[in-house]
From TrEMBL:
One Pfam family of this chain: SWIM
InterPro entries associated with the record: Znf_SWIM
Domain SWIM-type positions: 151-187
Membrane-crossing residue ranges in chain numbering: 162-184
Keyword Zinc-finger: yes
Keywords of this entry: Membrane, Metal-binding, Transmembrane, Transmembrane helix, Zinc, Zinc-finger
A molecular function (GO) term: zinc ion binding
This protein's name: SWIM-type domain-containing protein
């Protein structure tokens, strides 16, 4: 059986079928003498570099270094994100074709929001740059393989999205379902007039 799986398919596999599949792939790669492209160490080094770079460009501190008691659970501090802003962010940062986002990813993000996977959102206004606000949340993973919540944050500047981070595998692409689900939640709050 020669099945071609897409990355999304792997995320929905059970752990045992994923192990079987990866085992077969490893044997195949060994037979072909395929070179190992990236080590885990190299990947995490690149991720750290990318993370620091996103914060530096926006002259913002690392939200993970902000003490827990400085974050507010207050919807009034949330930025004003309407559909136009959310959609233009998606289009600017899309790494997959628009049709895919429209049909699949967007639906998935909405179902995340609808099923309550988006927990509480916390905000932190930068004291020295009052128009900048971080919004962060813990997202229940959608996959069976990973059971730690994804750490997702977005940095806004006067209601515009400056940059984002999500610890999920798709998060570095600047457009994952968790980020979209957070944007939905903020947008719904805005529409309800908070
Ligand atoms: Zn994510």
């Amino acid at each position: 059986m020669d099945e071609q799986y897409q990355f999304e398919d792997l995320l929905h596999m059970t752990l045992s079928s994923l192990q079987d599949y990866l085992g077969l792939r490893a044997f195949g790669a060994y037979d072909l003498k395929a070179p190992i492209k990236y080590t885990q160490e190299k990947i995490s080094k690149e991720l750290k570099k990318e993370y620091q770079c996103r914060l530096q460009v926006c002259t913002a501190p690392d939200p993970n270094t902000i003490p827990a008691d400085k974050w507010e659970e207050n919807v009034l501090t949330w930025p004003n994100v309407n559909e136009g802003k959310a959609f233009s962010f998606i289009l600017q940062n899309k790494t997959v074709e628009t049709e895919y986002i429209g049909r699949n990813k967007d639906k998935k993000a909405y179902s995340f929001y609808e099923s309550g996977f988006v927990g509480c959102l916390y905000s932190y206004c930068l004291p020295d740059q009052r128009n900048k606000v971080f919004i962060k949340g813990d997202m229940t993973p959608s996959t069976k393989v990973c059971d730690r919540p994804h750490n997702t944050w977005i940095l806004f500047d006067s209601n515009s999205i400056l940059t984002i981070w999500c610890t999920c595998v798709a998060g570095t692409s600047l457009c994952c379902s968790h980020i979209l689900a957070v944007l939905y939640k903020i947008n719904v709050a805005h529409k309800r007039g908070y």
